[in-house]
Amino acid sequence: MNMSSWVLWGNEMLNCYDTLPDKMQEAYAFIKDYESLLRELQTVIFAVRHFETIYKNEGFSIMTSRKCRSYNITHVLGNAHYRQARVGIEMFEYFKSEEELLTGNMSINLSSDIIESTFGIYKSKKSPNKLYDATSFVLTIPVYSKVANESVTKTINFKERILNVKLKDISAWSTEHLPKNWVTERNKTLRKVS
């Protein structure tokens, strides 16, 4: 559940509550009942966004984990109510347990940008006709990550790789792993009829 939109809205309402006309104050009076919860949730949401930014840009490493734990201590645990403190302690323990799994200078990329761009390339090259569904063209997806790095590209003998792959192998793989292509099925049916 994405809470950030209603938590931010609630906090904005709390910030401007005293400037609202009396009728609106009456309508939004319930917000005052949840002021402490809304403030705590906003602090936690801002902390999570901060952690996401660090991990997306710098990866997950002992250094970034400690940076996030420090931020957590200062901004989430510092002067926290019991609910916020419980969340802060859970985050602290999570960072600590994940950090223990890392060795040395290990850094793990946590960004989905690589995956999104790889599938973006595939989606831009595949047929726009939705009836085609997935075709054997999906076999090109792993290639993008290899050919994107020029130093790796120089080590690949493309001619040898192309010669070792037969169309019957691709057809066999497609039959075994992909759903039926309805355009192909329709064309086969039309050929039989004509």
In short, what is this structure?
With 194 residues, the chain is mainly α. 70% of the residues lie in helices and 2% in strands.
Any overview of this molecule?
- By secondary structure, this protein is mainly alpha-helical.
- It is built from 12 helices and 2 strands, in the order H-H-H-H-E-H-H-E-H-H-H-H-H-H.
- It has helices spanning 4-16, 22-27, 30-33, 35-58, 62-77, 82-100, 113-125, 141-147, 150-153, 158-164, 167-177, 182-193; strands spanning 60-61, 107-108.
- The protein has a two-stranded antiparallel ribbon.
- Helix 1 crosses helix 4 (35-58), helix 4 (35-58) runs parallel beside helix 6 (82-100) and helix 7 crosses helix 8.
- The N and C termini lie far apart (54 Å).
Which terms summarize this structure?
194 residues; mainly alpha; two-stranded antiparallel sheet; 12 helices; flat
Shape: flat
How large is the count of helical segments? 12
Cα gyration radius (Å) = 27 Å
Structural class, by secondary structure, is: mainly alpha
Strand content: under 5%
Write the layout of secondary structure elements.
Elements lengths: L3 H13 L5 H6 L2 H4 L1 H24 L1 E2 H16 L4 H19 L6 E2 L4 H13 L15 H7 L2 H4 L4 H7 L2 H11 L4 H12 L1
Antiparallel strand pairs: 1-2
